[in-house]
Amino acid sequence: MTAPHKGVQAPANAPSPPVGESLENGILTLAMQRPERKNSLSEEMLAGLQASLEEAAANPEVKVVVIRSTGNVFCAGHDLKEMTAARAHDDRGRAYYAEMMGRCSTLMQTVVRLPKPVVAVVEGLATAAGAQLVASCDLAIATDTATFCTPGVNIGLFCSTPMVALSRNVSRKQAMEMLLTGETIDASTAKEFGLINRIVPKDYLEPVVKKYAETIASKSPLTVKIGKEAFYNQAEMSLSDAYDYCANVMVENMLARDAEEGINAFLQKRKPEWTGE
After folding, report:
1. Average of per-residue pLDDT values in the chain
2. What single Pfam family name could you report for this chain, choosing any that match (predicted)?
3. pLDDT at 27 over 80
């Protein structure tokens, strides 16, 4: 499923990169592969994901990005061992913490602003910034054994940055329930809250993910890019401003070659041929 980062063949004795990559039929799979560290968002993991997503944004062959993990933990959030080690610095880690929180926030915004849909595939636990990553993705598919939590309050560190993504996915009451109690919720509750889209038995996970990704990859890449950008932009606007903005977006979209082709194909009862223009 995975390949060395950037497609470079690593020596046999070299450690695997933090993020494995595989591109097939327009679907780029990014696999966090540090199960021994619970796929935490360490310095190397943040750098690996950021680089992979930036490359995906610029690669016209990529239509959809799937983020998943190896091992039984999707992502355990920030690497607390790295964070604790920084307390030995003269400033008690202030500069390091600011840098790491900034890098994590940049990653989450990169996911949201990526001109390609991003799908999280969750097996196991997604906690703290790991739950934040799930919430930041456009879609999320989880196994029936997946669990989620924002447990910072339990260790004296409120999940304030995960709160940003969480509160934009679930209702305020549900977000505060997770943030204030720090308790773990199961996949069924996560779906009820709106944090994930689908719950799938492990044996059916791969075909379901493939179907989702292939369905999205079959659409006009230009149309999907326009739609994703508009979705997140209008969500931050007032009702009136959102309608004005989206009306203009639809005008520009109607003038695109892919819209002309898609409408003609529909009227002529044939399959459209997308050019991305």
Report:
1. 93
2. ECH_1
3. yes
